[in-house]
Write a structure and sequence with these properties.
Layout (H helix, E strand, L loop, with lengths): L13 H5 L2 H6 L6 H10 L18 H9 L15 H23 L15 H12 L18 H4 L9 H15 L3 E2 L6 H8 L11 H13 L3 E5 L2 H4 L19 E7 L2 E2 L5 H10 L7 E3 L13 E3 L7 E4 L12
Parallel strand pairs: 1-2, 5-6
Antiparallel strand pairs: 2-3, 3-4, 3-7, 5-7
Helix pairs in contact: 6-8, 8-9, 8-10
Length: 331
């Protein structure tokens, strides 16, 4: 019979009531593997700092000087690659638009000027003349000095030759630039196309122009803002007037004379102030025996090379049909 007083006391906690102290120790809860990994990651990490100490040779003064003398490595700019094909397409479009603008800008050059009604030459011929000079078609650029011309007098005579010399073509192109800008104008009938043919390298039978006539026009353009030419080669326009077929405008292939009718907007009489001014400019430059019209339209002048004769007082006539030299002396 068991003594009631010796029975163990029962605890109110069901765990401790039926669990020994050893079992309580084993039953303590432990963190899960995931919680342990998270706790490990949350700990601050310390990185080991590796210090490489230079050797004794690297610490020497000589090594320091050599390191200081080494050039710094250039920093390369990062390559930027376009990820937008639209940008490349816009670049191509811009080039096309510029080319079209250049084409239409050239085509929009003014037509050969004329002060009256009649035939005019299109702007395309002006563009072609300019392109001939800038595109390598002319092998010799004319020099403003008769002594510098290396071609023979026969080669310079486009009134009878079947070809146009580089010197003649170059000066014709230069004059056509003045036509394009409105500084050189023609009359009716218009003789400017005769110069345009030479600028394009075309020797048109019956439409040639004496090289000295081109030089006289060029000198007039050098000294006046606007120059008007009313007559050059009458064979080209079918004119027979004044001296008829004996005129320097018609004889020996034609084109050996030029009639100026306008200078700086003022009509010429051969005796007005601007006519006299041009005569004085040209007289020391033209070859001896050069014809000069309008002797009865002005007061007497002391001239060195011009040989005056009578002519109508509505222009200034200059011709080289009987001149002793093949070029003008100017530079």
């Amino acid at each position: 019979m068991v003594d009631v007083d010796q029975q163990p006391e029962l605890s109110d906690d069901p765990v401790t009531a039926f669990t020994t102290p050893e079992e309580l120790t084993i039953a303590q809860p432990f963190p899960s593997r995931r919680a342990a990994l998270e706790a490990e990651r949350s700990r601050p990490r310390t990185r080991e700092r590796i210090v490489v100490k230079p050797t004794r040779a690297e610490r020497s003064p000589k090594a320091r000087v050599e390191r200081a003398a080494r050039p710094a490595r250039p920093v390369r700019a990062p390559r930027v690659r376009s990820s937008h094909p639209e940008r490349r397409r816009w670049g191509v479009h811009a080039v096309v638009m510029l080319a079209l603008a250049a084409f239409f800008g050239t085509a929009a050059l003014p037509a050969y000027a004329t002060s009256g009604e009649g035939s005019t030459v299109g702007a395309a011929r002006t563009a072609l003349a300019v392109q001939t000079l800038t595109g390598g078609g002319v092998t010799q650029v004319v020099a403003r000095d008769g002594l510098a011309i290396q071609e023979s007098p026969q080669a310079l005579d486009s009134t009878t030759n079947a070809s146009v010399s580089p010197t003649v073509q170059a000066l014709a192109v230069q004059i056509m630039g003045a036509v394009a800008s409105g500084r050189l104008v023609g009359s009716t009938p218009n003789h400017i196309p005769e110069i345009a043919d030479l600028a394009e390298g075309q020797a048109v039978p019956g439409c040639g122009v004496d090289y000295r006539v081109l030089q006289a026009i060029s000198i007039a353009l050098d000294n006046f803002n606007q120059v008007g030419v009313s007559d050059i080669n009458r064979r080209c326009t079918g004119q027979i007037e004044g001296a008829g077929t004996d005129s320097a405008h018609y004889a020996d292939g034609g084109g050996h004379a030029v009639d100026f009718y306008l200078l700086n907007g003022s009509p010429l009489t051969g005796g007005d102030a601007k006519s006299v001014e041009l005569i004085r400019i040209l007289d020391p430059l033209v070859p001896d025996g050069t014809g000069l019209g309008q002797v009865g339209c002005r007061s007497s002048m002391d001239l060195s090379n011009f040989k005056p004769f009578d002519d109508t007082c509505n222009h200034l006539h200059i011709d080289f049909l009987k001149s002793s030299g093949s070029t003008l002396r100017y530079g």
